[in-house]
Amino acid sequence: MRRARHVDANHAPLRNLARALFAAVEDTSDVGRGFPDLVGRTHRGTVYLLEVKNPNRAKSRRTLQGQQADMALRWGDSYRVVETEADVIELART
Hints:
- There is one protein chain.
- Helix content is 35%, strand content 19%.
- By secondary structure, it is an alpha+beta fold.
- Helix 1 (11-21) packs parallel to helix 4 (85-92).
- The termini are far apart.
């Protein structure tokens, strides 16, 4: 049985900010199987897989687990966790 997907409360604001700052952003939060919430390409051509986590949740709820952790290991530095607007702004500059 497939679990219902969970989108963090800060998902939409961070997605909208990324869309304003990045050259391209796709919302992939409905893909599942550990795939991150957003895929973004900066104006300099750097591609990031962005996992949105809510900084207001307990640290244990923001830790990558299972398939998310596996995906992060496979994608290395291209896989980033974003929690705040400052995180998105920093990545948009790269």
